[in-house]
Structures are given as C-alpha cells and as structure tokens.
Specification:
By secondary structure, the chain is mainly α. The chain has ten helices and five strands. The longest helix is centred in the C-terminal third of the chain and has 41 residues, at 193-233.
Length: 244
C-alpha cells in the first residue's frame, strides 16, 4: 500500500498532483482508510507511470482520454485514441516532407514573378488552372488574397502568388486540400519561407522525439493493461508486487 506522497516521489510530483490525477480519472479510484485517507496500490503506481508516459507522446488531453478509457474498461476507446495520435504524427511527417520538397521552389527567386498585383484570372492562367479552382482553394483556407479597394476584385500580391504556386505544386503531388492548408499555415506562422526553411531541422527532431515517446508510452500502457488483466482474472486473491 502506498500514500500519495509515495507515488509522487518517483516522478518528482507533489502528493496533491497525484490526488488530482485520481480526481480526473486518469488513476483508478483509491481505497480509503476509516479516517478518509487514500490508500494506493501497485495498480495505481503502474497507472501513474502509464499516464505520465502518454503525455509527451500524445499530449495531456489525449493521454488523459487513454487512461480514463482503460480505467472504465473501454480498451477499444483507449486504443482508438492512440491510433488517432499516430495518424496525426504521420500527417505531421507528411506535412514536413511536403514543405521540404517545396522549399527549394519557394526560396529560389523567380524572374518571371510580376512586381504588381495580379487578378485571379491571370494567376489561374499562370498556373494552368481554372479561376474556380483558386476560389475553391481560398474557401479551403489555402489562399488568402485581398480585394482591390475600388473594384473589390481579388488581387494576388507576391506572397499570395507564392502560396498559389506552392498549393499547385502540392496538389499535383496528390496532397489533400486540408493538408495543403496546414503547410501554408506553417509558412505564415514561421514568418516567411526563409524562417520556415531554417526551422525544418528542429521540426523534424521534434517529430522524432514524439515518435520515440510513443514507443515508451506503448510499453507503459501495455504494462498497465496486462497488470489489470492478471489481477482481474486472479482467483486466489494474490497481487503481483511491482517495486517502485
């Protein structure tokens, strides 16, 4: 049997943090003494290790969702949350690859880029697409051209044209519209193409760290699931002791 402080010490947490985790459902309910003090077991120690391993892999929200599902005996729901997180990591990798593949085009100055705003028809002709395609990309959040103050028609400035060229490149590469919108958001958030190009290495390193964290998280979650299975099927009332 363990006190909250006993579980907290292993992870550099406070006893209150452990109690909070139980209140949020990421730890199973603890037994209580006659005076109301919490009594934790090996089950809680393993559950806490499993939850804390999920956080760097899947984030606080998904990590909590996974452990609450397990504690409610909804293992399928827990694994579905893990699957969604893996899909998101794959999507992030594909986004990074798409940016890396297109970054050469974006950072290389093009002599044929006009020095004045272009109407949507001119941009469409330049890319070999229909104006309706550009408007569709705009509705998808990929393009954000301004409107002329007088005519109120869409006009594409240098950055808008760059975004249209990148969108066209990625679209021909088979990327979906929402994926392309994510890439363009990365370009804008980074403050431009040059800044984004400089951040690619750090971005890839973070994805590698997250992927490895998922491996650790999977092992901890499997440990917790196996412990629950063993103890739920035991008939002699015995418990497996897992040292802290």
């Amino acid at each position: 049997m363990y006190r909250p402080v006993d579980l907290a010490r292993e992870h550099g947490l406070t006893a209150q943090a452990v109690r909070n985790y139980e209140d949020r459902g990421v730890l199973p309910p603890a037994e209580r003494t006659a005076s109301g003090y919490r009594i934790y077991s090996d089950l809680h120690a393993i559950a806490l290790r499993a939850y804390l391993a999920q956080v760097p892999a899947h984030g606080y929200a998904t990590g909590g969702e996974i452990l609450r599902a397990v504690n409610n005996n909804a293992v399928d729901d827990a694994l579905r949350a893990v699957d969604r997180s893996h899909v998101q990591l794959l999507r992030d990798r594909e986004t990074l690859d798409a940016v890396g593949a297109a970054i050469g085009l974006l950072v290389t100055p093009r002599d044929d880029r006009p020095d004045r705003p272009l109407p949507v028809s001119a941009v469409a002709h330049r890319l070999g697409v229909n104006p309706a395609t550009l408007r569709k990309w705009e509705r998808a959040g990929i393009l954000r051209p301004e409107r002329d103050r007088v005519s109120r028609h869409r006009v594409y400035r240098a950055d808008d044209l760059r975004d249209a060229e990148l969108a066209h490149l990625l679209r021909r590469g088979g990327y979906l519209l929402d994926h392309i919108a994510t890439v363009l958001d990365q370009v804008r958030t980074a403050g431009g193409v040059d800044a984004l190009a400089a951040s690619l290495a750090g971005w890839r390193e973070r994805l590698v760290d997250r992927g490895r964290a998922m491996l650790t998280a999977a092992g901890r979650l499997d440990e917790y699931l196996r412990f629950r299975e063993v103890n739920s099927t035991a008939t002699d009332g015995s418990r497996v002791r897992v040292p802290l």
